[in-house]
Structures are given as structure tokens and as C-alpha cells.
């Protein structure tokens, strides 16, 4: 989830003279259903970019050995604007390192946010995105919190579509993974005093990935570390700022040294309510009731979280968002995590104060039922009646 931070940087000088303009599709009253409008084939651009090995259906990748690591693809997308302006025009570029001022706002004051979404290849050869408008909306919300201009929903979705289309040979075969797409918004203008940067760069790159956790779909073993908290009231825990992630690295490293998969954090005030895992939201199941911590400013509004809540209601479960005391874990039947990178991941145990609490991982499982529906929608195996998927032609 924190992959690729070294690529947070501004546009190289050479991009200013790049020979092809981005063609942003025109949307009227944008919705995720309307976003299925096709991205135009590169041959229709007035100034063409030559797509490398465009005749190859797949890149030279051992898809069976794919994990969740960076595999550089062919192209990235870059767009920028000044502090008091709006984003106007972006363009595709070869994927490469790019220069940045040592006094850039993102390097000195952490002024940056990011998103994560995926493109999947269906059995019949279509390419689908999943709810990219929700990522765009969340980035706009985060940008407002971090005093940054943001691309519009149309610009965001078009940039993601162009990036995916340009790198389509890197989308794994059906059942072998996804193309993880990472949009970044960072303050790249130079600034010395503590203030918003004078210039901003919106950048999108992609990498083929498979399972986020090394356990794959095997149950996770989480650890509640009471020394560290992820976010506090009044902070930025509810937005996807880059500053939320470096502080949890020490807690994760310590947990993994002890043999755990990840850390489950408690609230910063009472140290008794569940919040989220380092890289994903958390759910508990008791009978027909599914509970997840309520959004209160310290928990990220996950798009997979939001989708699973709706899917669970469709399946007849009682769904609630509430403050969940850590003691409720002892009475739970199942626990699972959700996130763009992790999908839906079952939890086998949670260790708290040297007490290991185990959960059901066999027979009929709620998490598996919800996961099957989610992936079915994302990969086109289930008809999308919600308008959540966006097809790229």
C-alpha cells in the first residue's frame, strides 16, 4: 500500500515539450455508469504516441509468480498546475524517474495524497475499472484537507483510463492478478516556510500485482499494538495522505518480527475501540450481523469497505457502523479486512495483551460469500447492475 513513494516527484523539463496532448473525454453529469464511455484508441489522437510492443497481448511476465511489488510498466500520466489555478491538460509519458526540487512541499512538509484502484481483465477479454469516480471524489476531499488543488472527477477518471489503456499488456490474464493503478497528487513547487506549495503535480502510474499479503487468501494473524496509534481526532487519518503511512512502519516491522501479518490499531483517546489495520479496514461478524468501525475522522473511508457494506445488505445481512470495543472480538464468529490492495482478507486470529483470539476459518464463511460477489463484479463474472464497473475499449 505504501509502494512507490520514491516516485512522488515533479514533471521533468522534457515533458513540457512532449508532442502529444491528452484527450480528456467530455462527460455530462458524470456518474460511474456514464464512465463506461470508451477511451479513444491512440490512433485517433492528433499527435500520436507510439505504443511500445502494441501488438503483444501480454508483457513478458511470469504471472504465476506475481506478488504485490513494483513492476515498472511502459507509461505514466502527468498533469500539473499552480497553487491558484486549476488542472487543465495532462499527457502520457514513458515511465521513468523524474526530477524534483529539494525544497518541494512534498519532501519538506509531506504535502501529498494518493489513491489506489485496479484494472481487471475479464474472461471475454474486456478491461474493467471498479468505481474510479469514488477514488476521484476521495482525492478531492483529501486535497481540500491538505490545502491542495485537485483534478476534477472527469480529469481523474480520464487519466486513469489513459494510463490503463497505454499499459494494457501489463494487465494480468484472468485469475492471475490485476493492474494496480496509483494516482498521486503532490506539492512539487519549492517552498521553505511552512505553507502550501506553489505548484502541484498529479501523476498516475501502474504495476501488475497479485496478493497483497504473503499469506495470499490464507487467514491473517493480526496484533494489537497499544504503544502506537494510527491517527487521532482532528488529524488527517480520514484522508489518504502520505503522512499517515510512514508512522505505522515501525509498528508493522515489530509485528512481523513476532510472526504477525499486520497491526490492528485502537483509538487514540480511549485505547479501547477498534479503528483499522495499517493497510485496510476491519469488519467483525456475529451471526447475521456485520459490524465495522464508524467513520469519525480517524478512519479511512475505504471504497472496498463501502462496496462490501452495500453487498452485505444486498445479501440480507444486518450491517452496522459503530464504535467497536476491543472486547467484542472475543464474541465474534469471523473477522475480515477490506481494501483495494487486499481485496477481502480473512483474519484467523488477533493477539491482544498476550491473549490470542481465534476466529472461524472453515465451513460456510461470510467473508468468502462477500468476496466472491465483489470479485465477480470486478472481473465481469457477475452482471453489474449497480453501474460500478467502467469498461475501457
Automatic annotation (TrEMBL):
<dbReference type="GO" id="GO:0052654">
    <property type="term" value="F:L-leucine-2-oxoglutarate transaminase activity"/>
</dbReference>
<dbReference type="GO" id="GO:0004084">
    <property type="term" value="F:branched-chain-amino-acid transaminase activity"/>
</dbReference>
<dbReference type="GO" id="GO:0052655">
    <property type="term" value="F:L-valine-2-oxoglutarate transaminase activity"/>
</dbReference>
<dbReference type="InterPro" id="IPR005786">
    <property type="entry name" value="B_amino_transII"/>
</dbReference>
<dbReference type="InterPro" id="IPR043131">
    <property type="entry name" value="BCAT-like_N"/>
</dbReference>
<keyword id="KW-0032">Aminotransferase</keyword>
<protein>
    <recommendedName>
        <fullName>Branched-chain-amino-acid aminotransferase</fullName>
        <ecNumber>2.6.1.42</ecNumber>
    </recommendedName>
</protein>
<dbReference type="Pfam" id="PF01063">
    <property type="entry name" value="Aminotran_4"/>
</dbReference>
<dbReference type="GO" id="GO:0052656">
    <property type="term" value="F:L-isoleucine-2-oxoglutarate transaminase activity"/>
</dbReference>
<dbReference type="GO" id="GO:0005737">
    <property type="term" value="C:cytoplasm"/>
</dbReference>
<comment type="similarity">
    <text>Belongs to the class-IV pyridoxal-phosphate-dependent aminotransferase family.</text>
</comment>
<dbReference type="GO" id="GO:0008652">
    <property type="term" value="P:amino acid biosynthetic process"/>
</dbReference>
<dbReference type="InterPro" id="IPR001544">
    <property type="entry name" value="Aminotrans_IV"/>
</dbReference>
<keyword id="KW-0100">Branched-chain amino acid biosynthesis</keyword>
<dbReference type="InterPro" id="IPR018300">
    <property type="entry name" value="Aminotrans_IV_CS"/>
</dbReference>
<dbReference type="InterPro" id="IPR043132">
    <property type="entry name" value="BCAT-like_C"/>
</dbReference>
<keyword id="KW-0663">Pyridoxal phosphate</keyword>
<feature type="modified residue" description="N6-(pyridoxal phosphate)lysine">
    <location>
        <position position="240"/>
    </location>
</feature>
<dbReference type="InterPro" id="IPR033939">
    <property type="entry name" value="BCAT_family"/>
</dbReference>
<keyword id="KW-0028">Amino-acid biosynthesis</keyword>
<keyword id="KW-0808">Transferase</keyword>
<dbReference type="GO" id="GO:0009082">
    <property type="term" value="P:branched-chain amino acid biosynthetic process"/>
</dbReference>
<dbReference type="InterPro" id="IPR036038">
    <property type="entry name" value="Aminotransferase-like"/>
</dbReference>
Amino acid at each position: 500500500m505504501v509502494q512507490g513513494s520514491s516516485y512522488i516527484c515533479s514533471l521533468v523539463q522534457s515533458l513540457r515539450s512532449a508532442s502529444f496532448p491528452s484527450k480528456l473525454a467530455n462527460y455530462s453529469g458524470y456518474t460511474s455508469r456514464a464512465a463506461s464511455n470508451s477511451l479513444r484508441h491512440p490512433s485517433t489522437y492528433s499527435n500520436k504516441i507510439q505504443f511500445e510492443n502494441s501488438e503483444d497481448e501480454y508483457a513478458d511476465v511470469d504471472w504465476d509468480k506475481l506478488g504485490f511489488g513494483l513492476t515498472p510498466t511502459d507509461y505514466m500520466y502527468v498533469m500539473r498546475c499552480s497553487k491558484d489555478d486549476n488542472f487543465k491538460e495532462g499527457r502520457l509519458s514513458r515511465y521513468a524517474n523524474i526530477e524534483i526540487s529539494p525544497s518541494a512541499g512534498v519532501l519538506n512538509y509531506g504535502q501529498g495524497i494518493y489513491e489506489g484502484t485496479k484494472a481487471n481483465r475479464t474472461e471475454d477479454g474486456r478491461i474493467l475499472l471498479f468505481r474510479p469516480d469514488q477514488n476521484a471524489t476521495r482525492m478531492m476531499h483529501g486535497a481540500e484537507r491538505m490545502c491542495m488543488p485537485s483534478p476534477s472527477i472527469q480529469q481523474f477518471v480520464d487519466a486513469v483510463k489513459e494510463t490503463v489503456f497505454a499499459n494494457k499488456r501489463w494487465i494480468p490474464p484472468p485469475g492471475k492478478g490485476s493492474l494496480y493503478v496509483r494516482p498521486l497528487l503532490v506539492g512539487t513547487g519549492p517552498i521553505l516556510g511552512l505553507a502550501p506549495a506553489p505548484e502541484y503535480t498529479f501523476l498516475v502510474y501502474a504495476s501488475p500485482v497479485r496478493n497483497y499479503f504473503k499469506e495470499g487468501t490464507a487467514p491473517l494473524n493480526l496484533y494489537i499494538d497499544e504503544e502506537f496509534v494510527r491517527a487521532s481526532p482532528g488529524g488527517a487519518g480520514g484522508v489518504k495522505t502520505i503522512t499517515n503511512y510512514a508512522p505505522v512502519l515501525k509498528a508493522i516491522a515489530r509485528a512481523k518480527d513476532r510472526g504477525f501479518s499486520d497491526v490492528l490499531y485502537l483509538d487514540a483517546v480511549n485505547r479501547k475501540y477498534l479503528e483499522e489495520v495499517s493497510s485496510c479496514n476491519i469488519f467483525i461478524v456475529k451471526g447475521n450481523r456485520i459490524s465495522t468501525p464508524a467513520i469519525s475522522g480517524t478512519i479511512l473511508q475505504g471504497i472496498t469497505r463501502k462496496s462490501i457494506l452495500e453487498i452485505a445488505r444486498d445479501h440480507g445481512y444486518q450491517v452496522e457502523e459503530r464504535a467497536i470495543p476491543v472486547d467484542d472480538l472475543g464474541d465474534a464468529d469471523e473477522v475480515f479486512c477490506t481494501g483495494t490492495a487486499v481485496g477481502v482478507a480473512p483474519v484467523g486470529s488477533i493477539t491482544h495483551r498476550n491473549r490470542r483470539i481465534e476466529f472461524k476459518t472453515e465451513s460456510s464463511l461470510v467473508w468468502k460469500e462477500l468476496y466472491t460477489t465483489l470479485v465477480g463484479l470486478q472481473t465481469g463474472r457477475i452482471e453489474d447492475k449497480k453501474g460500478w464497473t467502467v469498461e475501457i475499449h
